[in-house]
């Protein structure tokens, strides 16, 4: 399942993802852009290292993650 595109119903089919977490994932993606990787997915409350490791073999990411403002070097300080 492509986490950068899937709706909440599709995300619920993943191991360890219930309805509430699926909604948080979709909401975070809508607000913050694509995850881009399993590491990016861990920005969602409820997705820690263990769940990310469990999901890694069954998910894909087609999007490019948005750079965080802290890592955006194009802005002046």
What does the largest sheet look like?
none
- Helical proportion, percent range: 25-40%
**Count of helical regions:** 4
What number is the mean pLDDT?
A: 88
Strand content: under 5%
Rough outline: globular
Uncertain stretches of 5 or more adjacent residues: 70-77
| Rg calculated over all Cα atoms | 13 Å
What's the helix-strand series? HHHH
| Secondary structure tally: strands | 0
Distance between the termini: 38 Å
Structural class: mainly alpha
Q: What would your notes on this structure say?
A:
By secondary structure, the protein is mostly helical. The chain has helices at 8-11, 19-32, 38-41, 49-55. Mean pLDDT is 88; it is low at 70-77.
Give a brief rundown of this model:
The chain has 77 residues and is an all-alpha fold.
Primary descriptors:
77 residues; 0% strand; disordered C terminus; single chain; mainly alpha
Topology:
Layout: H1 8-11, H2 19-32, H3 38-41, H4 49-55
């Amino acid at each position: 399942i492509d986490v950068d595109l899937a709706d909440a119903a599709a995300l619920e089919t993943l191991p360890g993802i219930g309805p509430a977490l699926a909604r948080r994932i979709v909401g975070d993606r809508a607000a913050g852009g694509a995850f881009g990787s399993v590491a990016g997915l861990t920005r969602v409350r409820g997705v820690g290292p263990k769940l990310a490791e469990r999901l890694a073999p069954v998910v894909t990411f087609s999007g490019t993650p948005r750079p965080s403002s802290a890592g955006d070097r194009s802005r002046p300080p």
